[in-house]
Amino acid sequence: MNINQRLDSINSGNKVTIRKLHASGKLMHKLLDMGFIIGSNIEIVREAPLFDPMELKIQNYNISLRKSEANLIEVIKYEES
Amino acid sequence: MKNLKVALAGQPNCGKSTIFNLVSGIDQHIANYPGVTVDKKTGKFTYENHKIEMVDLPGTYSFSSYSLEERVAKKFIIDDNPDVIVNILDASNIKRNLYLTFQLLEIGMPVVVVLNMMDVAQRRGIDIDSAKISEMLGCPVIEASGTKNIGGEEIMKAIVDITQDEEHYEDFKLNYEELEPHIKTIETKIDSSTSKLNKRWMAIKALEGDTTIIEYLEKDFFDIKTSLKKEEDKFHSLFDKDTVSFLATLRYDSSDIIYHKAIVDKKKGIETLTDKIDKIILNRWLSLPILFAIMFMIYELSIVGGYKLTDYTWPILAAVKNFVIDISPAPYLTNIPIMTDFAIWMINSANALVNYVPIFFILFILIAIMEDVGYMPRMAFILDRIFKKFGLHGQSTLPLVLGGAMVGGCAVPGVMATKGIADDRARMATILTVPYMNCLAKVPFYTLLLAAFFHESMSLMMFFISTITIFTALIVAKLITSTFLKTRETAPFVMELPPYHLPTIKGVILSASQRVWIYIYKVLTIVMAVAIVLFAMLQFPGISNESQIKYDRQLEKGLNTFDKKAQNNKYYKEVDTKDEIASLLNYYDGYKAKRMATTSKEGSLAVDNKYKTLNASYFKFIKPKKDKEAKKINRILRKLAKVRNRILRNVKNEKVENSLLGMAGKSVEPYTEYAGFDWKINVAFLSSFAARESAVATLGSLYENGKVDSQRAEEAMAENSGYTSLHAVAIIIFMLLTPPCIATMIVVKMQTNSYKWMMFAIFFPVFLGVTVSSSVFTLGTIYQWDGVEAMTYFYICITALALVLGMWPSKTINWKGGLKKNQKIYNNYQQNLMKGGN
């Protein structure tokens, strides 16, 4: 199934590809600077012990994002070939 | 000798400071970048006839103008025109690091690329072809490892070489494809600019919406914004892309190309050591216990251990004090020269602060280790959810713990530890709430009050006192972030979790000593200045003539009694004049003070010997042993000393009462009355501003009745003050909310870079303290609560309020687009952004 989902709804351990960023302004810049480029792959590493924020692996490094911000990132799940 | 100015740039966590320490050694100078609280480290060194000044730019992921650090770094490049930019990359994380490199290369200044942490990369099985990278980027690429002391020479050589080879230096150009014609248009437009900066770079940055560059260009080209808008719109309509994400995408694509051509990651996909450690450190069930254990360990090692260490350092400080007293003019009976009084006051104020240096040193070492290891962002990751509800940030944890989450901390290192918090509003809120935590120096004060008024329920009260502070801090944080700090710049929580690294001893010691030095140098000097003012406020106008006569008479009476009783003594000859008695009294006081300062047997023996050689005939009166006649003198001498001390104390109290500070205390009595404070409490609070320690001393001496010397301060207070336990609760509540000491004020000023916020940090707690303690006291009086009841109700109210506020959604002015709904806030926010966040 190829439905676009929001990043915050993806469970740990999954791998996704960025489809679209719904952020704007400063957050948009920050996300782009940190490598949230359309087409990049993200692996969801884990959630924080209190369920928010979440830890992701992108561009070969680890980053954390609050779910409120992750909600602005549209992704699609992908299977590794 | 040729002078070279070098800017050191790199992304956070690339090991920039280890390279900085490697090349510049310990000859470092720390200041702030003008107008902001970002550290500016400068190192100087010479290499082959070149004097090199290296400036450490703040670590930034990008080189636009969206964070304070980026603006500061950009401003430095524009204003200071460095000769060379040294770009440090984390070799184990090249892809993202190159993103910044492209932006630095575009500036058009010579760039030296340094691949740091080559050892880590090798260990992780990452093969890097640095010659290939050098060829692709068209600039020298040096392999290095700051922690292993590799590459320092080569970096210096490359810096010097590249400046001598300027003609051969080729401008680096990234081909921005579809955007190129638009860049060209802007470039042509600004072609007439006289600026030394690269035009293509300015054009690209302007198209990226970089405010610093646009402002810079607006000076010469007033309509630049319209042209930019036109180009951006054109680009958007042609390709359905906006410039910002287009540029970012292209840069990441370019670094991807380099990554694929020059790097082979042999162990890709295999779990790294960091991944393994994080499985435990960030585990859902283990992370919180581990975090508390680490916090507890820091607390134990620094506050508890450091406090024990002060047992060893305190005698040194006491010796310094005794030395100062020795060289000051000696008192004559009850007449103490003002110089001596002043010297003692100053040395006491200094000692109170210097005493904390061992604690701070341990603390700063531990903080430096945690920073270097990479635990800080993990701590923020674990606790962010709680803190964000109160407008704070996950990174507020450490400052609050240091401020005294358990019984006793210190706001000075707490406030200093706020530096790394990325979100400006949360950082400000943390700075302003850390002082609400329980500082170490408040503890004796609580102990005094609890011992005086809450004998039976001491532990319950202590529990209330030590756990309520975090709730009050959270409430205050919520309060000020949704009011006074509402328009402050906030930053999205997009935080890297860097790989763990072993810290270097050199780096840790350097960082800790630099921070301790800031404390000694900046804080101490200002505290001394304030201490002088306070001294004057406590001394003048002094006591009235009538009182002086009264006390002179009392002294005369005491002397007469002494004389009468000594007359038949065989040593009468030695003590029959006023001068002799005066010097004997000084001798006795000096001996007592020195004996108090030593704890060991050998120490007291040494004091004995010293005083014996100083004056053998006086010594027999002080330690009479079996000499009966000397014993008699000893007895009446002690009585006389008591009389003298009582007079001195009364003189002091009267002086305080008449003094400017006393008047101030009295003048606010009508207001503090509602909280049950009389002027004595007010004076104690006012004087505690200099250093908290003095509050206990002031209160103790104000409440002594002078009749019984053996009475302890808490007994004196319970008996002589006429207070009930409800009064005590009001005092405790005020103390919980009381303004920070001067030392804290100074670091608040340093960290907020504003006197306005410093004043706020003083007066807001006073306002809160008076309001809250008045309400509790007034309600308590109406409903006839006793102290414990009042405190319990207060505690319940505060915790409930904190919980309710935690449920309240935090409104962030942010970056999501909700901005335009409230235009006023948005405008303020924009202004703050322009002003550089200050």
Question: What's this, in brief?
Answer:
By secondary structure, chain A is an alpha+beta fold. Helices cover 16% and strands 38% of the residues of chain A.
Please tell me about this protein's structure.
The complex is a heterodimer of chains A (81) and B (838). Helices cover 16% and strands 38% of the residues of chain A. In chain A, 46% of the residues are buried. By secondary structure, chain A is an alpha+beta fold. Chain A has a six-stranded antiparallel sheet. Chain B is an alpha/beta fold. Among the domains of chain B are: 171 residues, Rossmann fold; 219 residues, no CATH class; 109 residues, no CATH class. In chain B, α22 packs across α34. Chain B is elongated. The two termini of chain B are 40 Å apart. In chain B, 43% of the residues are buried. Classes of the chains: A alpha+beta (81), B alpha/beta (838). Chains A and B meet through α1, β3 and β5 of A and α3, α11, α16 and β10 of B.
User: What are the secondary-structure elements of chain A, in order, as H or E?
Assistant: EEHEEEHE
Order of strands, main sheet of chain A, comes to 1-6-2-3-4-5
Mean pLDDT level of chain A: 89
Span of the ends, CA to CA of chain B: 40 Å
What's the total count of β strands of chain B? Answer: 10
Main sheet overview of chain A? 6 strands, antiparallel
Spans of at least 5 consecutive residues with low confidence of chain B? 705-710, 813-826, 832-838
Number of alpha- plus pi-helical segments of chain A: 2
